[in-house]
């Protein structure tokens, strides 16, 4: 069995880590540089750093903050938010990112995925997809979940894979911040229909939710924020529980 990954997510706004519910009602969760260091030491497999207001405000991700976070960690580190060109990715990789995540810019210009893969390689390119289930259909949303599109989650995910992306980070907007569990039915469908790794995001509240998303959702990795930021779940305890349930994780 392939080793499953646990990934804390650092949502950044105005230089601080924040966490909300259903993409709104943000509250402060601490200094991203210090949190990154703590998570690396606590056994996180990777980190994701998302500048959640970068796309909305049409500015670049805070490259200097990326540099300071990367200085503190020795695990793979993905950066997203406001990335829309090869040049943007170049800057982030030079500042210490291992992978980059694109979302709105990929939908607006799908060819960007091809360009980034050609320049930096599939292993470096993560496409994040924020989707909301509306009347039974999963609809892709942009700009931090504020703008609905006409894209279906599964159709878009398949196109993303065809264009060469190395991973998909799927966030269920219905589940985000609710702590009621991941969208395992949608995750299982993604994992079955695609050949690239799927990262589950949105809904983590208990250790059981992580077990469920690996078993029922067939996810390759699970991403969470508030349960880690506010110490509701310790990563080492979570990994011991996952192992006890027969799930392969790195300790």
Short description:
With 251 residues, the chain is α/β, with parallel strands linked by helices. 35% of the residues lie in helices and 28% in strands. The protein is globular and about 45 Å long.
The amount of beta strand, in percent, is 25-35%
SSE order: EEEHEHEHEHHEEEHEHEHEHH
- Looking at how many chains there are and whether they match, the oligomeric state comes to single chain
Largest sheet at a glance? 8 strands, parallel, barrel
Structural class: alpha/beta
Strand runs, count: 12
Helical content class: 25-40%
Looking at the structure, what is the overall shape?
globular
Give the spatial strand order of the biggest sheet. 1-4-5-6-7-10-11-12
pLDDT average, as an integer? Answer: 91
Care to describe what's here?
With 251 residues, the chain is an alpha/beta fold. It is 35% helix and 28% strand. The protein is built from ten helices and twelve strands. It has an eight-stranded parallel β-barrel with strand order 1-4-5-6-7-10-11-12, surrounded by six helices. It starts with a strand and ends in a 7-residue tail after the last helix. The mean pLDDT is 91.
Features:
251 residues, alpha/beta
Question: Helices, strands, pairings?
Answer:
Blueprint: E1 5-13, E2 16-21, E3 24-30, H1 32-42, E4 47-51, H2 63-72, E5 77-80, H3 86-94, E6 99-102, H4 104-108, H5 111-120, E7 125-134, E8 137-142, E9 147-152, H6 153-162, E10 167-172, H7 184-193, E11 198-201, H8 207-215, E12 221-224, H9 226-229, H10 235-244
Parallel strand pairs: 1-4, 1-12, 4-5, 5-6, 6-7, 7-10, 10-11, 11-12
Antiparallel strand pairs: 1-2, 2-3, 7-8, 8-9
Helix pairs in contact: 1-2
